[in-house]
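Board notes (copied after class):
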Amino acid sequence: MKKVVVRTKKEELEKIEPIIGEKFHFIEEENELIKINIYIKDELLDDLITKLQESALDFRLKQTMIEVSTPDFVISSVLKRAEEKEEKVKEKTPIEKLIDSIRPYKKLDLGKISLTTVAGIVALTGLFLNNVAIIIGAMLLSPLLGPIYAFSINTAIGRGREAFKSIGNLGIMLLVVLIISFIATLLIDPFVDLEKTEEIKSRTDPNIIYIIMAILLGFAAIFALSKGISESIAGVAIAAALLPPTVVVGIAFALYPGDAINAIILTLENILGLIAGGLSAVIILGIGPRKYYEKAIARKFIIRTALLIIILIILLFLGLTAVIIEH
């Protein structure tokens, strides 16, 4: 259940009433303004906001405002009867809510870098101990989900600069993991006999199947977040595909230079797959801006981004084929 509060000039009421229809609402007068309180089901919210923005409200007026909240509970027999009359529609998360959800990922701060560093060290430990539980623990710590999620939503609404900034943030975080893994391995190696465990070996064997799996993981993660599923659950899926392989790249540069190219290819497979999966999710879910001209801009950016990703995947596939033939 959502409560939608609309404030605007009284003259706008005649345009709003047909949109509200039989939805449970009441109107208050505030001098020259009106305040309309509307109670609707969650799945009807996106459609209502779209109609109010497109055909009813004039946001050039500074008094015009829409406020959405979630009441703890509402007791009303009239509201219950109104809900029973409402038609059932497929629930869609309002784009405004999704845009708000990516705000924490806009900036790459010291906290995220520190957490990424700790996650990398924990993953390094798990890889050398061949301990899956420790590696999973590192995934839970890793904040690598944020940039992928922010990229997907920003691409869906046509914010190219913000989208590529998100990819830049992801690149910095992965570079930190790689450097920390490389340095830590060099520091530990003289004192400890570091074994090339199965967990390390498995991440130096690139295969086209990893791209497919990464696409599925990226799709599932963005789908889950857009539906309000726990960030920690979706985050593990992203971290599983990015954190351990990147750590292995650092290990390979330090101890097994011959395997470094394979580890890099596998990591790039996962990065491109996750990005492609995230982009597929926003397209299939129909996530995008509301206004027509914004939709046109977003559509062009999505097409260009999709073509770039396809070209990069093809180039990576050709590189992978060359490596396989060489060996």
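Comment from the instructor: Residues 96-326 form a domain with the Glycerol uptake facilitator protein fold (CATH 1.20.1080). The chain has two domains: 2-92, 96-326.
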